[in-house]
């Protein structure tokens, strides 16, 4: 391979126990400069079906793998990723265009996900059930266990390709499921390398390499993977529109969807306004705003609006824009020019509809500058939908109850946060706000990879986090035993 980075794994795609040739390649380019990073293998629907066939043939083998084998493979993978963490960080910068600081965090979180999944192997168990709560259950012994759901298809988004892939494959392996991973077409490189390391760790532990496979490609590959009736579960991270289509097409296969949001941060009248402004800058522009739980909507109680906006404006000058390879950079180019054009058009539409552009909005050197909008009206995409760019919209309301109503008046519900000095207000927010996670005095983008993570409404179904994903990728099997088969007549 040529370009800015040379990958250290075989050519082709990891399908079955080998790497198979591909009919074509696609260029992966550094979003900041447009330079070639590498020529990535392009898969096909035929290769996708081949991967599913191989995975289906391994179902029983995967389900019967001893716990120590599954655990050892995940532990070794984490060790191998850690040994190459600097290379992974640089590769992530090049293929995603994300600032280096965010790519370092991504590798840290990937390591936590892998090691936690390894630990959860030891906690995959069931429990007994008191069947004699009714007379008909007298003399019966009951217990349930968890069994793997079967073949898992994991489809990841482009913004955190290494981390999102780890959240698909690590719980699947821990649960005893063969898994086929499909990375986003824009960012296949780090995921290919991760899958290579997992496969080598599996072989070292005495398991088939083909328990983890990867197929690249576009919509045709995705359709082939998600509509195959031999698949037990599809785990998808991406847009709501695509997720909804997958859910329809895959039925009745189980589907886990993480579909993003337009996350809100509420500033109460008693909030530490300076801390809230810090949080908006930290939480609104990390990963150049390409994070599903980045701060997009800020809802401020009217009494502190002016002081909050002033505090926010003071901090905007500290947001470093430029080359994502520089450690100090916080905002850089979005994944491609199309995304940049879309976000800029949303900003321009909001301003035309009456919003005030406080800062940013223009593109310099291919980078959309960090943007702050005031009073974006309902019905504008920059308020209603997921902007997925460095744009924060601020609106004031008369009361805290109105703030909660504004937050909930969205089709999304992944994460939200509130800044307040009142424990009572914090618990009111936890009770009232309709999201999968409510964060108090921190950014809505806070996510520990060990916690249950997922949304409500159009933000998806199911939960990630190794423990919770393993539960999603296993099914209970109830055992009901009458120790003696003698006639009771």
Structure notes:
It is a single chain. By secondary structure, the chain is α/β, with parallel strands linked by helices. The protein folds into 2 domains: about 15-260 and about 455-475, Aldehyde Dehydrogenase, Chain A, domain 1; about 265-440, 3-Layer(aba) Sandwich (Aldehyde Dehydrogenase, Chain A, domain 2). About 40% of the residues lie in helices and about 20% in strands. The chain is built from 16 helices and 22 strands. It has helices spanning about 45-55, 60-65, 65-85, 85-95, 100-120, 160-175, 190-205, 220-225, 240-250, 275-285, 305-315, 335-350, 380-385, 400-410, 425-430, 465-470, and strands at about 15, 20, 25-30, 35-40, 125-130, 140-150, 150-155, 180, 210-215, 230-235, 255-260, 265, 295-300, 355-360, 365, 365-370, 370-375, 390-395, 415-420, 435-440, 460, 475-480. A 7-stranded mixed beta sheet has the order 14-17-18-13-12-19-20, sandwiched between helices. A 6-stranded mixed beta sheet has the order 9-8-7-10-11-21, with helices on both faces. Strands 5-6-22 form a 3-stranded antiparallel beta sheet. About 55% of the residues are buried. The model has no long low-confidence stretch (mean pLDDT about 95).
Spatial order of the strands forming the largest sheet: 14-17-18-13-12-19-20
Which class do the helix and strand fractions yield?
alpha/beta
Query: Which regions are unreliable across 5 or more consecutive residues at pLDDT < 50?
Result: none
| CATH homologous superfamily descriptor of the largest domain | Aldehyde Dehydrogenase, Chain A, domain 1
How many structural domains in the coordinates?
2
Q: What helical percentage do the residues reach?
A: 25-40%
How far apart, in Å, are the first and last alpha carbons?
A: 76 Å
Question: CATH first level of the largest domain: which class?
Answer: Alpha Beta
The CATH architecture assignment of the largest domain turns out to be 3-Layer(aba) Sandwich
Indicate the proportion of strand residues. 15-25%
Question: What composes the largest sheet?
Answer: 7 strands, mixed
Number of helices: 16
CATH topology of the largest domain: Aldehyde Dehydrogenase, Chain A, domain 1
Basic shape: globular
Rg computed from alpha carbons, rounded to a whole number of angstroms: 24 Å
Number of strands: 22
> What oligomeric state is this?
single chain
